[in-house]
């Protein structure tokens, strides 16, 4: 049963979603995996795990470590590659009526352009460019931190791809206003922010007279990054006119409202999916109830009042 | 309507809590419906204030009352230890693939808290009438959970059963008992050594692995290990593809 209703509908610059609760890339698999726990078709959209041109095995060594208010991951973009995604995951998404946004990542400009063309040829409705993964040594990281490289990348992708184009920005820059503005000028339809913060954690144990250290360097996510994300959304909003999708440490309805107040039109739930696998759907229900209970006509009116 | 969709999340009541050994505790939770759990499968427990849920192998299942064994080691187990009878606990499961039970003479090797799923497996084998012996190793007498049907006990200090690591007795056990399959759970070194003995003696082994997990359902790829399959080395998730693997397929580092 769908929990959706018109009151939660959101129009992101032409991309209409039944509600503004999305799930963040890398935390929700490719398609229907969370149907074990909820009805994924109730969500605004699922952003797929990052897809690359060729399959990737990802990083060796320890990939995750818990921190005080979140976790650090160093998965290294392990994924099945675009051919297998198109062949085996898209039918699952369609059969289950799951709205999705395909997250793509390349190691070179050429790879991004090829991916964009494939997405266009396959009529993928919306894509999110991962230009900021902190766990891959070469490649996409450079695009996200350099505004002229980012401008060129987004422009080239825009030439090949006519669908809805989201650029996911990294917080690991001096001025996110500048990278956001570059993405907008290059033709992005929306911006999502933030990707993970660069982080590291060293777990120290003293066993049999010796120190045992577990070091994980990678992307920090979870509740701890929310203030950084709110700040980024506010600064991006001040620099661009395209919609912003807020990401970072969202766990509760209050967090969602905070992102709306900061200027986000929609949000993505990430690490909290691991803690509470049902959280995204729960937030859809809570948001809908909140709009009704507070006497607003719809989501747009709620946002308007929040920002007044 | 929505609730019908939710198959694997339980706000379960703690129905029993006991200390079974010096540093091992047993906690039993009551789910709404009796659920079928395979030995080697696990449940994932939300621990208040922590980002990552904690996985625990199932130790017992009596008509939907799921029991686990744990040692207080970190923040997660500290939380679980703080629970009392009647408290609600947020649990998902059963998750993963358990031991694949074969109609073969079975040697069960458990070490430390890793005896929990092996003990559960023993009850299943006994129910099916499959011939087996359960050998278990502990630090000392005080660490042996009081309720397990263990056939051979080994302790590091010799305070109960044979003295020394269970690993020192693997060859003897195999030669004496002549198992057709070995199932095991315990520290990494135990799993690795059992797998090596299996290779050496040409006996199939099934090992229950452990790794820090985030999603527990195979999507985040956080808990992968290297596994040999069809001559290639590929990633397999401990949470979904495992936690039980064939010992011969794991790439032991």
Topology, element by element:
The complex is a heterodimer of chains A (308) and B (253).
Chain A: E1 10-12, E2 15-17, E3 21-23, E4 45-47, E5 64-67, E6 70-73, H1 82-95, E7 100-104, H2 109-121, E8 126-130, H3 140-145, H4 147-160, E9 164-168, H5 176-185, E10 190-193, E11 197-207, E12 210-221, H6 226-239, E13 244-247, H7 253-262, E14 266-269, H8 272-275, H9 279-293, H10 299-307
Parallel strand pairs in A: 3-4, 3-14, 4-7, 7-8, 8-9, 9-10, 10-13, 13-14
Antiparallel strand pairs in A: 1-2, 5-6, 6-12, 11-12
Helix pairs in contact in A: 2-4, 4-5, 5-6, 6-7
Chain B: H1 2-5, E1 9-19, E2 24-30, E3 42-45, E4 54-62, E5 65-71, H2 75-82, E6 88-95, E7 106-111, H3 115-128, E8 132-138, E9 152-155, E10 162-163, H4 170-177, E11 181-185, H5 188-201, E12 204-208, E13 224-229, E14 232-237, E15 244-246
Parallel strand pairs in B: 7-8, 7-11, 8-9, 9-10, 11-12
Antiparallel strand pairs in B: 1-2, 1-6, 2-5, 3-4, 3-6, 4-5, 12-15, 13-14
Record keyword descriptors for this entry.
heterodimer, A: 308 residues, alpha/beta, TIM Barrel, B: 253 residues, Elongation Factor Tu (Ef-tu), domain 3, Rossmann fold, 2 domains, 6-stranded antiparallel beta barrel, 15 strands, 19% helix, globular, disordered N terminus
Number of domains of chain B: 2
* Termini Cα gap of chain A: 35 Å
The radius of gyration computed from the alpha-carbon positions of chain A, rounded to a whole number of angstroms, is 19 Å
Instruction: Classify the fold: give the CATH topology of chain A.
Output: TIM Barrel
Spatial shape of chain A = globular
